[in-house]
Specification:
By secondary structure, the protein is mainly alpha-helical. It is 51% helix and 10% strand. The mean pLDDT is 85.
Length: 81
């Protein structure tokens, strides 16, 4: 078995890629001006990562719901009058 309580502070996270891209875009600075407010590149990297993951999940869900099984799983409402 492995060790318990292994620190993960030095392990790169999922947002490391967008954070590096935004740092290059900012010219090496620690923050970017968004609507006149300085926003840390780390926060923008996390926002980009969350938006990409949410967009990917929405795309996959949409593609699944277009299949025959996905169509069968959609809820159907019966309105009785």
């Amino acid at each position: 078995m492995g060790r318990s309580n292994v620190p993960l502070l030095d392990v790169p996270s999922l947002s490391a890629g967008p954070e590096a891209w935004l740092t290059r875009l900012a010219g090496g600075h620690d923050s970017l001006a968004v609507a006149g407010w300085p926003v840390p590149v780390r926060d923008l990297g996390m926002l980009v990562t969350v938006l990409l993951v949410a967009g990917l999940v929405a795309l996959l869900l949409n593609l699944f719901l277009l299949t025959h099984l996905g169509t069968a799983m959609r809820p159907r409402a019966r309105i009785r009058r």
